[in-house]
Write a structure and sequence with these properties.
This protein has 363 residues and is α/β, with parallel strands linked by helices. It is 33% helix and 11% strand. Helix 5 packs parallel to helix 6 and helix 6 packs parallel to helix 7.
Length: 363
């Protein structure tokens, strides 16, 4: 932490900001399809994005700094009355008030990439993604890149766009990118995804996932495509489903198992992924169960599904290739040190601002 005035870095803050700050970067021919915010009659803000119902700003988006005792109240929520939503200079002042040295900045989760993907036209959608990334790098984080560490957004519309934007993010100077779906935008890993993983490794670009990959709506589908289809009448259970059993596996674990069994970590041994805000107290138990369940099912999966045996245990792969984030420190402190955990300052949506620096001490 040399060079920082405070001992803590938030590993998962959310940058909630009015789209009017950045949508002017969308080319004119697509700007009318860009997200916009309107003020409702009660004084609250709401997002308008084509293909999606009007989305009123809620406490889940903008209750930063208002205190837990205010949570769930019905007064109007707006960008003007919430810390963290203004200029970069304001955000740095708020970091100082919070005792936070720097923040890794994810986009808004309710009003960010998932909502933007409702724009049906891929060209317009990509123009929105590029506008956000350009504004974030050139107008916002550039104020102090050591304290405002924004993550470039990778588009959700296929491998070509994903690789192209990864390369552009590298040229813009981003220190990491956030991936919301598999690079192919499918529900499961595919061979074409390797182009993205290879580009990330070659450019030494860290890849983050906020909680887990989105598999809803048009992105719904099978967890895995196995090498072999079982014979008719042959009873077999999906290996990914069994090892990432929801009785033990929490957010992000299914994606880790998908990547593991697809051989991604074998083909790219230096690849690391950070699964943010996964509340990792469950992780030690999951790793234990994953190894045991793999031993139960690996031989049947080899016979019926054509799955090759792993070189190592599932827990070994996860410990080497996956990092996990938590908003609460007590449970994170009980996790294995190889599963590096981070604590979120939470000022972006939670009531811990401006006392976030006190939270790690409670662990």
């Amino acid at each position: 932490m040399d060079g920082y005035a405070f001992p803590f870095i938030s590993g998962d803050s959310h940058l909630e900001t009015h789209p009017g700050r950045w949508t002017e970067r969308v080319p004119a021919k697509h700007r009318e399809r860009a997200p916009r915010v309107v003020r409702l009659s009660d004084g609250s803000d709401a997002w308008i994005v084509e293909g999606s119902p009007l989305r009123r700003i809620s406490w889940g988006d903008l209750y930063g700094g208002k205190g837990r005792q205010q949570f769930g109240r019905t007064e109007a929520m707006s960008y003007e009355n919430t810390p963290g939503t203004g200029s970069a200079e304001q955000r740095i002042r708020e970091q100082d008030a919070d005792g936070i040295a720097a923040e890794i900045l994810f986009p808004g989760q309710q009003t960010g990439p998932r909502l933007w993907r409702s724009i049906a036209d891929d060209d317009a959608y990509l123009a929105v993604i590029r506008a956000w990334n350009s504004w974030l790098a050139e107008d916002y984080c550039s104020v102090d890149a050591d304290r405002l560490m924004g993550l470039g957004v990778i588009p959700w519309c296929g491998i070509h766009a994903a690789v192209a934007e990864l390369e552009r993010c590298a040229s813009l100077g981003f220190k990491g990118v956030v991936l919301g779906v598999f690079p192919s935008a499918k529900s499961h890993p595919t061979p074409e995804d390797d182009r993205f993983w290879e580009a990330a490794v070659e450019s030494k670009m860290p890849v983050a996932v906020h909680v887990e990959f989105d598999r809803n709506g048009p992105r719904a589908g099978p967890l895995f495509r196995y090498p072999r289809t079982p014979d008719s009448g042959e009873e077999v259970r999906s290996l990914v489903d069994q090892v990432a059993n929801p009785k033990f596996a929490n957010s992000g674990a299914v994606n880790a198992m998908q990547l593991l069994f697809a051989g991604v970590f074998d083909r790219f041994p230096s690849l690391r992924l950070f699964f943010a805000e996964t509340q990792i107290g469950w992780l030690p138990h999951f790793l234990e169960q994953a190894d045991e369940l793999y031993e139960w099912h690996r031989f049947g999966a080899e016979r019926a599904l054509g799955m090759a045996q792993l070189d190592r245990s599932p827990s070994d792969y996860v410990r080497q290739h996956c990092y996990w984030g938590s908003s609460t420190t007590r449970s994170a402190c009980r996790c294995p040190p190889t599963s590096a955990s981070t604590s979120s300052s939470g000022r972006r949506t939670s009531p811990t601002w401006a006392v976030s620096s006190r939270i790690p001490a409670t662990g």
